[in-house]
């Protein structure tokens, strides 16, 4: 067992980070490695709250650079809570992934939620950000 000089386990490194190139009105995140409920509590919730407080709507983008099974149960529950807490504020949400199952789920889920939900392949990240911001896609 090797941790640190004071023999404490290392703190969890956030596996969700803010995508800095995102438009100002989009809460955009990159998920890598194992995603936990702490990632949602410490980063996602505060950023989403700030965006909703400022813009009075939620434009959300999640770039999945990890397998969906790397989300812990706590992370899934926090993600669901995010949706329920901001139900009235959802405007647009993009899930960016090359996983067909996640893309299909997102497209089906869009029928159940207020606002617009759409999946994009990883190669279309900037198109997804543009769509979240404006509601249109870039002409290719």
UniProtKB/TrEMBL annotation:
<dbReference type="InterPro" id="IPR021866">
    <property type="entry name" value="SpoIIAA-like"/>
</dbReference>
<protein>
    <submittedName>
        <fullName>SpoIIAA-like protein</fullName>
    </submittedName>
</protein>
<dbReference type="InterPro" id="IPR038396">
    <property type="entry name" value="SpoIIAA-like_sf"/>
</dbReference>
<dbReference type="Pfam" id="PF11964">
    <property type="entry name" value="SpoIIAA-like"/>
</dbReference>
<dbReference type="InterPro" id="IPR036513">
    <property type="entry name" value="STAS_dom_sf"/>
</dbReference>
């Amino acid at each position: 067992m090797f941790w640190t000089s004071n023999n404490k386990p290392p703190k969890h490194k956030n596996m969700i980070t803010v995508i800095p190139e995102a438009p100002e009105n989009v809460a955009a995140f990159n998920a890598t490695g194992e995603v936990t409920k702490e990632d949602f509590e410490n980063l996602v919730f505060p950023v989403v709250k700030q965006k909703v407080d400022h813009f009075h709507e939620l434009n959300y983008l999640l770039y999945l650079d990890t397998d969906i099974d790397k989300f812990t149960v706590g992370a899934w529950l926090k993600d669901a809570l995010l949706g329920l807490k901001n139900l009235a504020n959802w405007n647009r949400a993009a899930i960016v992934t090359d996983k067909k199952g996640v893309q299909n789920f997102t497209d089906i889920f869009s029928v159940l939620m207020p606002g617009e939900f759409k999946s994009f392949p990883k190669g279309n990240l900037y198109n997804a950000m543009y769509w979240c911001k404006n509601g249109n896609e870039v002409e290719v």
